[in-house]
Prior knowledge:
single chain; alpha/beta; eight-stranded mixed β-sheet; 9 helices
Amino acid sequence: MASKTSAYKQNEREGWNKFSARYTKVALPEFRPFGRRLIEMAGLGKGMWVLDVATGPGEPALTIARRVGPRGLVLGVDFSPVMIRRARGRAKRAGVGHAHFREMDAERLALDAMTFDRAFCRFGLMLMPNAERALAEMRRVLVPGGRVAIAVWSTQNKMNTLGTVRRVLERYDAFHPPPGAPDFFRFGKAGAVERTLRAAGFRQVRAERMTVEWVFKGPDEFWDSMKKAPSLRRALAKVSPVVRRAVKEDVFHALEKFRRRGKLRIPNEAVLAIGLKERAP
């Protein structure tokens, strides 16, 4: 099992390295509303020290850095070295000197215990083979009274961009997660996030669901965006050209139900949650 997990992580790292430019251009604007709400839920204050796990190209780390101000500190960590380089470049161009970025595995944080006031993880937890360990690590590095704030995708039928494509791939028996891959939608089920946070030792857990529409000019723009994502790129590489064309045609057909006012307006639901590391009695 350990070898499967290691192979999965290595493949994911390579995939996200390749996807980093597209992620920065396309995904960051799509994820921004979820990040803003997560920051509100976490209750940030000036001067806080904040950890951003699976920061990608530096978000929400850089937004958080502006909230905590120059007397605060933000550390963004990610297992993709290319993402970390992008995050450092964005921080430098923005003149945000109190945001720092390091390559690091979320399941083994090379950080001292009781260091941070807040820990964030926006759309990273569901990709981790041992998400429970990652949460335990986040709790370890939080000070007593600190909070964790996470965002994960809802169920497949409510995360409609990826869900639409996956349903078509499954119809053609063309979606096969690699060995060691976790269930991407496992935290979208009712109560799943709350139970996982409590099992990791967090208290006063609160979760809410939030839906944001992603707007595309048409099916071609949607397909061009989605096919570059690691999971779809991997799936399409393993099927014949005939199946690839059939998948694309079926996806285009399925997207028509989202067409309104001349564009595709596709709702995606996420689960946002916070939890508290209680002070010792």
